[in-house]
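Example record

One chain of 415 residues, shown exactly as stored in the release files.
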Amino acid sequence: MQAIGVAARKASTQINKASTELKNSALIAIADQIVVQREVLLAENQKDLEAARQNGIADALLDRLAFTEASFDSMVEGCLQVASLDDPVGEISHMAFQPNGLQIGKMRAPLGVIGIIYESRPNVTIDAASLCLKSGNAVILRGGSESIYSNRALARCIDVALESVGLPKEVVQLVPTTDRAAVGELITMNEYVDVIVPRGGLSLTSRIAKEASIPVIKHLDGNCHVYVDETADRQMAIDIAFNAKCNRYAVCNAMETLLLAESVAADVLPELAKRYQAAEVELRGCAQTVKLLSNVCPVTPAIEDDWYTEYVGPVLAVKIVAGLAEAISHINHYGSKHTDVIVTESYSRGQQFLREVDSSSVMINASPRFADGFEYGLGAEIGISTDKLHARGPVGLEGLTSQKYVVLGSGQVRQ
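Predicted C-alpha cells for this chain:
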C-alpha cells in the first residue's frame, strides 16, 4: 500500500499538468478498450457472479454486480460524456480589482490523490477513473472482493489506454488484494492520499467515516421519500411513486418511504397498493394506511424503525400525513438527506418544499431515481455526498477540485 501511495503521489503531479486534449484522448482510449475487451470482461464478470451465487449473495446485490448490455453502454457513454465536458482545472473565476490595483480571484485545482473504496458495482472502476482523470487527480481504487475479477479486467483496460496516450498507468491504480487490512492502511495514508470516497453499504461507510484520518466525501444511507401533495396530479403521483420504488431496489436513490396528504390518500393509495402488490413489494404502513388498505392488500403495521430504514429491497414504508408541513417535518427528522420528492401542481408549495427540505437533492414532479451524476449531466459520479462540505449531492468533476486564490499584481507592496 505504501508503494501504491508513493506511485500515486508521483503520478498526480503528471496528470495535474496534463492538457485537456491528452486527458480526453485517454478517456476515449478507455472507452475503446471496453468495447474491444467486451468478451473478456463478460467472462471475468461471470467468475464473480458464480462465486457470489455460491456465497449466497442476495439477488439485489447480484443485480449490482452483473454486467449487462446497458451497463456496458453506460460505461462507454460515461467515458465519452466526461471527455465532452468542460475541463474545470485552471478555470479562473471571481476576478476583481481591489482599490490598490491588485486583481484577486480563484482558480480550480485538482485535489491530488483520491482513494475510493467501493462494493459490488464494478462500473465504479470506470466512473471513478474517468472523473478523476479528467479532473487532474490520481486515484487509488479498492473494490470489493465480490467483484475482484471484473475490477482487475477493467483496470487492465485502463492501463492499456493510459499507456497508449503517454500517461503513466499509476494515474489509476487498483489495489490488487482483497485483504481488508488494505482498507485500514489506505484510509490513514495522509502523506499520499488527500480525500477518501466510500461507495457501499452503511457498515462500510460508517467504518470509513469513523476510522479515516483523511477527509471523507460520503453518504451513510439513502432513505429517500416521495410526498404526494394535496394538489398532485393523480396519475403523475402513481407513476412517480411506482417508479421511485420499483425501477430498481438495490440503489441509494430508490424511495424507501411514501408520504401522502390525507386529502388524496384514498384516491391515490389503493391503486398504487395494487401495483406494489403485483410487483411483490411488502408494505409497512401507519394506522391510517393499514385501515385504508384493509380490503385491498396486506399491510404490516409500521414501527418507529421503519421510518429510518433504507430497505434496499422490495419493502416500502407508507405514511398518511396531515399535509405539507408534516411531510417536511417527517423528512427532515427521519431522512438521510439524500433525495426527496414532492408531487404537486402548486408552484408555491413546490418552492416551499425546495427551501425547507434539508437534502442534497430536492425534486418537484420527478422520480428520485434521477439523483445520479450521469442523469445530472456530470458524465458520471464519484459518489453522492450528503455532507455540506466540501461537495453536496452527486460529485462530478467540479466536486473533485478545490479552489485556490490567485493574485495578479503590478509591483504592489504592503504599507
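Notes: The longest strand covers residues 103-110.
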